[in-house]
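Same chain as my last thread, 391 residues:
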Amino acid sequence: IAVTEGELDALTVRQHTNMKAVSLPNGCNSLPPPLVKLLERFEVIYLWLDDDVPGQAAAEKFARKLGVARCYIVRTRGGSSEGPKDANDALRMQNQDGEIADFRRMIETADIVQHGSIVRFGDLRSKVRQNLSDHVAAAGTKFGSQLEGLNTILKGHRPGELTIFTGRTGQGKTTVVSQMSLDLACNDVHTLWGSFEVKNEQLATKMLQQHSQKNLKGCTDEEFDAAADAFEALPLWFLTYYGSTKLDSILDAMEYAAYAYDVRHIVLDNLQFMSGGLGELLDESIHALRMFASDKGVHITLIAHPRKEDDGKLLQISSIFGSGKVTQESDNVVILQDNGVYRYLDIKKNRFDGTLGIVPFQFDTACMRYRGMTPQEIFLLRQKMMSSPQQ
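reply #2:
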């Protein structure tokens, strides 16, 4: 049987190969457990998803979900950067150019999923080509426009990475990460929140207002229902754990969410509640989360408290609570800083391309969100601070 992203692709495969074909209900974003069960009776499954970065990443993920021994990945472009993206594209290109698309050949050259620990360059070749020819998609899902500076520096939000996010108490770590996760969820990045310090109803109250971009305190029932209906439609789930929780329990729930809901972003707030704050346990927790992110193709955003330091000093990578393993295992390190004039996100580590920098921001009470500051706004704010009688 062939599994495709769209209905037209499934019809095309059926018509030109006489093979059974079904379409995924939500494109490459998810493979629901009921469909996994329906596919159990098939000995061979051809994953015929879009031959682009998101489609091929999803094909490998679904193959591991269905069982790599019976799955083959079809690449309509045959390792090239040009050509039809999917089966229906191949059919339409045939009609335009008068050439016959060789669908059988595509099936015969389908790839098996290699052992995760052993590869040659030949196994990576098509991915390398995709990364170079479609570097925008390879950079990941873009963050929201209100914090556009994150896209300039980090380039995007990518599966399989571990991000450490820290900042002093009360400066807005949870609020910023909440906004970032909502923007990604609006782009269909399935997200799981684990809030061990703030109860889910409090977190959901904040996130609901951020999503609706308005202060809903004292709102009417109609206003609440409209905002709540839109918020409830997001691919967003919450862990019910609260307070100090064993890591094994958290990992078990994370694994279920990745399998059942195809979660691709997990936010954990915060590290100390999962490790008890002890150095050895903290290192073990970081290593376990690093392995989970890599193995499951899930991006984990981990909020961590800094060490106790003088309030007047800016935080550094060494300020993050725990040993050096916390930041060594991470792909990205983001610190929420306050220099006395404005707050900003300080990207201290970026394993993707090494770009570092800052994203100054301020809170917009009208839409209940943070937004990036322009150079002119920063200049005026500095002038105002310098002319203040208190300075």
